[in-house]
Amino acid sequence: FSGPIGSQLRNCEKLPVVKFQIIDCEIPDIDSKILSKDQQYLLDVSLAIKSGTCTIDFAIREPGPISHSRWLTTANRVLRLYMSVESPSEEHLILVQFILKSYMPVWFKIKKSKYLTDGPKHVFNLIKSSRFLPENLIKVVDPVIERNAFFAHPENLLLSMIVDERAHIRELGLRRIIKSRTVASNKKLVRTFKPPKLNFQANEYYEIIDWTTTAISPPP
After folding, report:
1. pLDDT for 68-81, tens place per residue?
2. For the whole model, what pTM was predicted?
3. What is the 3-state secondary structure (H, E, C) of 88-131?
4. How far is CA 2 from the centre of its chain?
5. CB neighbours (10 Å) of residue 102?
6. Which of 52, 76, 160, 174 is the 20 to 30 A CA-CA neighbour of 65?
7. H or E segment at 173?
8. Which among 161, 50, 36 has a CA at the least distance from the CA of 105?
């Protein structure tokens, strides 16, 4: 890592904690017993920034090894560095806000609810939680979400819909499966499973695709 932020991450836990600005965020309730050491750190550092308090013991805790392949520990270090900078740059502040308002809450929701049928809801939560970003960063984030949104595939959405707690959504999902089976029975080609085009203005998880323009195939 390099640059004004990245170059400070490696030894951030050795820096003294200053009076940092509180940032409000949603922190899901989660049982600490299911968390690893690094995961617990993310929870604790998020709570510290939300409350504006940091104990001496926590200030010297190890945030986890720095690595390009370990986003969790990198996020830990970005947050820990924030607690040691009196006047964070705009770029640093945006990173911290994204971690606290989007990455962290979605991460813990996935940790709590890792069933196949929860996948579309996690994609939806990621979309909704990242809408606070300025337009120039939305244009960076959205393509990344879209090309990785395999859980937004109609097959996965339909699986989620038929176990929805709302009866009318379950019925809608079943009707779409029956209709898609009729269409699929006339096709002999191998289906291509790829992420669909997303609707980033969706208000519900089952609205994250346009059902009228997306090719629908029934779950296997």
Report:
1. 888 999 999 999 99
2. 0.91
3. CCHHHHHHHHHHHHHHHHHHHHHHHCCCHHHHHHHHHHHHHHCC
4. 25
5. 22
6. 52
7. helix 167-184
8. 50
